[in-house]
Amino acid sequence: MNSLNNTGSNIVIVDDLANNLRVLSEILQSGGYTVRPALNGEIALKSIRSKLPDLILLDVRMPGMDGYEVCRQLKSDPMTREIPVIFISALNDIEDKLAAFNAGGADYISKPFQMAEVLARVATHTALFKSRQALKAREECLQRSLRDMEAAHLRLKEMSSELLQSEKLASIGLLAAGVAHEINNPIGFISSDLNILKSYVGSLLRLIDEYALLETNAPDDMLKRIDETKQEIDLPFLRQDVMELIGESIDGSERVCKIVQDLRDFSHPGDSEWRQVNLNTALDSSLNLAWNEINHKAEVIKDYDDVPMVECLYDQISQVFVNLLVNAAQAIGEKGQITLRTRSENEWVTVSVIDNGCGIASENTEKIFDPFFTTRPVGKGTGLGLSTSYGIITKHGGRIVVDSAVEKGAAFTVWLPVKRSDSA
C-alpha cells in the first residue's frame, strides 16, 4: 500500500491494449483508487471532459491520436490543463521522455509496471494535485473575502458620510424650526403693514393731485409757497421713489417669507400621500413651475425613457426637481443648455438635470448638500435648496449625486427606488 493518503482519487487510464488496462486497474484498485479505462485518445478526451479525474495515466503509442496529442489537447483546455498526466510506455529513450515532458506530462512510468513504483508515483501526483486544488480554492475564497471586505469598507465609508450628513441635517433642522417660528410672526406683520402703507400712500398721492387742480385759483403768495415747497421736496422724484421704496420693501418682506418657508420645509417637509408617479410627467410639471427662471437663459432638451411608475410623495419630489432646475438655470450665464434625462435600471429610476453652466469647484462638491452652503453672493441664495432636496431623497430611500467640473457644467442625478423602501 502507498504511504500517502490519496485513496478515493479518480484516475483515468488510457491504453490501446486491454491487458495493460487490466494490470494497471488491478494495481490502482488495490491502492483504493477509482479507475476509468479508455482504449484510445478520442474516448479518453470525452470521458475526461464529462467528469474531471484527479490524475491521468496515458500511453504514448496508440493508433489514431497518440498520447502526446492527447496531452497537448488537455493542456490547451483551461478546464483540464491542471490535471496531472503520467505517461506510460515501454520506450525508455531520453528523447521519448523529453517529448512527454514537452507535451505537458508530469511524470513517466516505464513498462513493465512495478506495483510499488506505480502506486508511489500516483500517490505523489494525486496528493500534489489535490494540494494545488485546495490552495486554489483557498486563494479564491480569500479573493472573495477581500472583495467582500473592500465592498464592506466602501459601504462603511458611504454610511459614515450619510450618517454625518444626516446628523448635520438633524441638528440644523432643529435650529431652522426655531428660527422660522421666531421670524414668521413679525415678518407677517411687516408684510401686511407694507401693503396697507402702499394703499395709504397711493390715496395721499391722489389727494395731492386733487389739490393741484385748485392751485390755479390760489393767491399768488400761496402759489409761490407751494412752488417753493415742491422744489424743496422734489415732488416728482418723491412721487416715483416712495412707491418704488414701498415696492422694494414688499419684495424684501416676501423674500424673507420665502426664506422662512424654506426653513420650515427644511426642518419638516410637508407630507403628502404616497402614490404611484410617472417621473417624466412630474419633471414636466416642475419645468413649468421653474420656466420663468429658465425661459430666457437656456434651451431645454428632453431625453426621456419609458420609465416605470415610482411610489413617492409627489409634492416633495416635485420640490426637488424645481430646486435642481432653478439651480441649473442660475449656473448658466447668458445662454446655455439644460438636458433632462430619465432612465430605469433594475428596480431604480434615475432623473438627471444636466447644465453646461459654470460648474462646481472640486473643493465644493462635498459641501453643496450642507445646509446654508452656497457659492452665490450674499442675499442671492439661502443654501437650503440642495440640503432640503438631499433630505427628501434620503427619506425616499434614494440618493442624489453630482458630477461637475468648473466651466463645463454640472449633472445632478436623483436615484429613486421603484417601490417604497421599508425605512421611508
UniProtKB/TrEMBL annotation:
Transmembrane segments: none annotated. Gene3D superfamilies: 1.10.287.130, 3.40.50.2300, Histidine kinase-like ATPase, C-terminal domain (3.30.565.10). The modification 4-aspartylphosphate is found at D59. It is an enzyme of class 2 (transferase). It catalyses: ATP + protein L-histidine = ADP + protein N-phospho-L-histidine. Residues 10-126 form the Response regulatory domain. The keyword Signal does not apply. Keywords: Phosphoprotein. Residues 178-420 form the Histidine kinase domain. Its EC number is 2.7.13.3. Pfam families: HATPase_c, Response_reg. InterPro entries: CheY-like_superfamily, HATPase_C_sf, HATPase_dom, His_kinase_dom, HisK_dim/P_sf, Sig_transdc_His_kin-like_C, Sig_transdc_resp-reg_receiver. It comes from the Bacteria. This is histidine kinase. It comes from Candidatus Methylobacter oryzae.
